[in-house]
Task: inverse folding
């Protein structure tokens, strides 16, 4: 290939369980189905999401954009972190 190796961009999802109201928008809009609703309750009595498959997150930020409570955000996983995770 003329441009070298194509690398997957992986995101790191952070969820603030205290802010979440369990609407499930982030779970429903995740194109790779990396998120799922937890069976546990947060302090408000809602079921917040959790990252069920971190390697599937592609840093699209749909979950971050759709969250009405700003309880979830995504950052791009740095190359060093990806290399460490692949070798672990």
Result:
């Amino acid at each position: 290939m003329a441009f070298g190796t194509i690398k997957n961009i992986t995101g790191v999802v952070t969820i603030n369980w205290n802010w979440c109201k369990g609407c499930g928008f982030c779970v429903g809009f995740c194109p790779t189905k990396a998120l799922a609703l937890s069976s546990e309750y947060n302090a408000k009595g809602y079921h917040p999401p959790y990252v069920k498959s971190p390697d599937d997150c592609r840093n699209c930020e749909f979950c971050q954009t759709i969250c009405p409570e700003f309880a979830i955000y995504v950052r791009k996983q740095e190359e060093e972190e990806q290399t460490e995770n692949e070798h672990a």
In short: Residues 34 and 53 are 5 Å apart (CA to CA). The longest strand covers residues 11-15. The chain has three helices and four strands. The two ends are 28 Å apart (CA to CA).
